[in-house]
Design goal:
heterotrimer; A alpha/beta (234); B alpha/beta (235); C mainly alpha (406); A: 234 residues; alpha/beta; Beta Polymerase, domain 2; 2 domains; 5-stranded mixed sheet; two-stranded parallel sheet; 9 strands; C: 406 residues; Cytochrome-c3 Hydrogenase, chain B; 3-stranded antiparallel sheet; elongated
Chain lengths: 234, 235, 406
């Protein structure tokens, strides 16, 4: 990661107006990161490749992250490296749902398949990409799996499931002896629940009040907040 | 006279003596000459390679080595590794193209029940798509487990048994540490240990102890090692 | 006088046959495609005009599964990415989370990671090359390499408990300390691997058929390799000496001496030889690690917020019990932020881009899969070649489905 690249980018694209050019820079644990306005995505990438001091000739990775809480929910992340100068940089841009981003395939051809994968997993279309179709999922698949609101267990089988014969395993078939949520008594955010509007703090069971402890008999109805419910006698 | 009696038995009933022996003969021939279709996808494929390798030789000595990459010519479908939703139609088609009698061995936990890939992308076990004869659990299963699975399948073929079965482990892992000294573990392991003692070879490669007794030197039998590390050095 | 064949067959002649390209499907269940790649070929006779490489038949939802557990529960998934060298994936992911937290593992732990990682790399390259040779018809080197790979796996089993998918890495160290047998086992295996390499090379490298099928086939030029994001042995075979262990040393790779083998044509033969030479360099690294690794000392960082305490402490001291309890019940919580950490995997730059939101669940775990990019470059290598050339070319890029499709 190199400060010099960040300086060059700021010099070139710094003062382009609100929402354009370099929006933020950061340096966390030695990784330099630059957030770029989406209209300048291709221009910044081309500059990084062609500028003699940056000379970023190796595309490392292109991916995306989904922050459904934000208005611009997707963050497309590009990492590039220079073979000669040995420095790297991370570029990010933020997109709202349905927005399109220019393709970088004419800057570094190596982002061809990663862009297809971002489209496949998140649904972000890249303008100008010659072959924008799914790569890891099958064409009949609907939805974008890595979005936070896609339920992980929602399968879309291509072949209809058959029932294995009932003599197997004493007539019960093969079932896992625990539920999806069991065995995970941690403090964690359950995105499935959040996406459906239920507040998500799945706290350790010992910290919950009696009415809040999830049990299988109650189904997945976790109480909306950790506060005790209103006293019914009042 | 013995011969007329046999002929009389042959005259009555459906399963005459000679016919039954013929079925047995055919079953014997069938089980010792399985042609495999290796439908290899993932990590279990590495153990499949080891199984074919010189140490385990798990297929050739049972006559099951010949791979046939055309389903028309194969009779044992080895489903090795995770089958994703996208791959399922291919698997089904290959199974349908095989000629009867055909057998399926689900190699690995992903093929048996989906493993821990409990998500949108994988089938929870190939028996949702095709019928399976033997399940070999493990992630990946040791080649010894697969050999046990293959032998189980061969026994079933010999008995004309089509019930799906799971290969049991050789030892119950929870009982291993609690086992009393000297108690038999498993017929095969005791025999192997005796053979090694006779040959004067250590308990394992490079002197790796095979059990807790060997490690602690508390077993009834002290095996002298000729391998690189002597177990006694550890004391 | 009758016209001769050449006059009849040339363009416009009487024997010129109309031809149109043929579509042929190779895969996904195909021995040469390693079971998970589908190639739709457009053929002109035997020559491939155009190929559409379709990965994704082993997509197992790794990145989504990581978002459902804790940081420690990612290790089994990560093992099964590049499943021929699982220790390298484990170490890569541990380093990524440790970078996020700003933790450094003690020196003995770093040597231990290097030893197990190089053993994994050796088994990776042995598998790739011997399987590639087997696909050309050379069955014997496969058996020799599997024999020695089983011995390497014996050492890994002795250390970690499992032959293949160990899940042995932990954030802040390793699951268990090294056994007392580690050094002797590694010293014993180094000459065995050298011997098998020598035997295999002696069998293959003067064989006319092997050379004809590997040399000059599947060429990739240096500029195209760089533009396509190719890394690892495929890039090094084109002449670029980029190896993460030398360019951005992690663990203690700057304290050991080793070379980077580099090819010059970028063809199958160069990739094959680069891998064999890398095995030799890995053996060299192993020798040095074994000399330099201390015999005593912890391999784990001494921080109860990160790593579980020793079992003896858990059962005998109150601090150990509380530390264990808190770590198990509350989970390990790294600070919020994002990092990209990269190591040299078996196929190239294996990177982990992880995003943490401060809770115990990973927000996003993205693995930068080296063989995804290498597979993308396969189209260039195959177009213009014949169908039979696809087999050694595809075998030489070491496409591992678990890593490519995740």
């Amino acid at each position: 990661m190199s400060r010099k690249v960040v300086e060059r980018l700021k010099a070139q694209f710094g003062a382009l107006g609100p929402g354009r050019g370099i929006l933020e820079t950061s340096d966390f644990r030695g990784d330099e990161c630059v957030v770029v306005g989406k209209a300048d995505w291709q221009a910044v990438a081309t500059f990084l490749r062609d500028d003699a001091e940056c000379a970023m000739d190796m595309p490392v990775d292109l991916t995306a992250v989904d922050y459904p809480d934000r208005a611009e929910r997707f963050e497309v992340v590009l990492m590039v490296r220079s073979l000669t100068k040995k420095h790297r940089i991370r570029l990010k841009t933020r997109l709202a749902e349905g927005a399109k981003l220019g393709t970088l395939i004419f800057v570094w051809e190596g982002v061809n398949w990663p862009e297809r994968e971002v489209f496949d997993m998140f649904g972000i279309a890249f303008e100008g990409h010659p072959d924008m179709r799914r790569i890891l999922m099958y064409p009949e698949f609907e939805g974008y799996p890595l979005r936070k609101d896609y339920d992980i267990s929602q399968t879309q089988p291509l072949v209809e499931y058959r029932t294995p014969p009932s003599s197997w395993a004493g007539g019960e078939g093969k079932f896992a002896p625990f539920d999806r949520h069991e065995g995970q008594p941690w403090s964690r955010v359950d995105w499935q629940e959040r996406a459906h509007g239920r507040d998500i703090q799945v706290s350790p069971a010992i910290g919950l009040q009696e009415h809040q402890r999830p049990t299988l008999s109650k189904g997945h109805e976790y109480v909306a907040s950790n506060a005790a419910p209103a006293d019914p006698e009042e | 006279m013995a011969q007329p009696k046999q002929q009389m038995e042959m005259g009555g009933g459906d399963a005459g003596f000679v016919t039954t022996r013929l079925e047995d003969l055919v079953a014997w021939a069938r089980k010792y000459s399985l042609f495999q279709y290796p439908f290899v996808t993932a990590c279990c494929g590495m153990e499949f390679m080891s199984l074919n390798g010189p140490r385990y030789d798990g297929l050739a000595r049972f006559g099951a080595e010949a791979p046939r990459f055309s389903p028309r010519q194969a009779d044992l479908l080895w489903v090795v590794g995770t089958v994703s939703q996208r791959q399922a139609p291919a698997l089904k088609r290959i199974y349908e193209q095989m000629g009867d009698p055909k057998y399926v061995l689900a190699f690995g936990t992903c093929a048996s029940c989906g493993g821990f890939y409990d998500n949108y992308a994988t089938i929870p076990g190939i028996d949702k798509v095709i019928p399976v004869d033997v399940y070999v659990p493990g992630c990946p299963p040791r080649p010894e487990a697969v050999i046990d699975g293959l032998n189980l399948l061969m026994e079933k073929i010999g008995n004309n048994n089509r019930e799906p079965l799971v290969v049991p482990p050789r030892e119950i892992p929870a009982m291993t540490q609690l086992r009393k000294k000297g108690s038999p573990v498993y017929f095969g392991q005791e025999r192997i240990r005796e053979q090694r003692a006779q040959l004067g070879v250590g308990p394992g490669l490079y002197g790796v102890p095979a059990t807790m007794d060997d490690l602690l030197g508390t077993g009834d039998r002290k095996v002298e090692t000729t391998a690189v590390v002597k177990a006694k050095d550890h004391e | 006088m009758e016209p001769n064949y050449e006059e009849l067959a040339e363009e416009g002649g009487a024997l010129e046959l109309p031809a149109e390209p043929m579509r042929l499907n190779m895969g996904p269940s195909h021995p040469a495609m390693h079971g998970t790649i589908r190639m739709v070929l457009e053929l002109d006779g035997e020559t491939v005009n155009e190929v559409d490489v379709q990965p994704g038949y082993l997509h197992r939802g790794f990145e989504k599964s990581c978002e459902r557990g804790t940081w420690g529960q990612v290790f089994p998934y990560v093992d099964r990415l590049n499943y021929v060298s699982p220790m390298l994936n484990n170490v890569g992911f541990s380093l990524a989370v440790e970078k996020l937290c700003g933790i450094t593992v003690p020196e003995r732990g770093q040597w231990y990671r290097m030893v197990l990682g190089e053993l994994a790399r050796i088994s990776d390259h042995l598998t790739c090359n011997s399987a590639g040779a087997m696909e050309l018809g050379a069955f014997t080197p496969f058996l020799w390499c599997v024999k020695v790979r089983d011995w390497v796996w014996d050492i890994l089993e002795q250390e970690t408990g499992a032959r293949l998918t160990h899940s042995f890495g932990r954030i802040g160290g390793m699951a268990k300390p090294p056994t007392p047998y580690l050094k002797d086992s590694v010293r014993a295996i180094i000459p065995q691997v050298h011997e098998v390499l020598a035997e295999t090379e002696g069998l293959l490298l003067k064989n006319r058929i092997f050379l004809d099928r590997m040399q000059g086939i599947g060429k990739l030029s240096r500029e195209r390799a760089l533009a396509l994001g190719v890394t690892g042995p495929v890039l090094r075979s084109t002449g670029v000496d980029y190896d993460v262990r030398k360019a951005n040393p992690y663990l203690l790779y700057d304290k050991v001496d080793f070379d980077i083998p580099v090819g010059h044509d970028g063809d199958n033969y160069d990739r094959f030889m680069v891998r064999f030479e890398e095995i030799r360099q890995s053996l060299r690294i192993l020798e040095q690690c074994i000399e330099k690794m201390a015999d005593q000392g912890s391999v784990n960082v001494d921080d109860p917020r990160v790593i579980l305490p020793e079992k003896e402490d858990v059962y005998s001291t109150i601090e150990g019990t509380i530390a264990h309890f808190k770590l198990v019940m509350e989970g390990f919580k790294p600070p919020p932020g994002e990092v990209y950490s990269y190591t040299e995997g078996g196929n190239g730059e294996l990177g982990f881009f992880i995003v943490s939101d401060g809770s115990g669940t990973p927000y996003r775990v993205r693995v930068r899969p080296p063989c995804f990019y290498n597979l993308q470059a396969t189209r260039e290598m195959i177009c213009g070649e014949m169908i039979a050339d696809i087999v050694p070319t595809f075998g030489s890029i070491n496409m591992i489905g678990g890593e490519c499709d995740r």
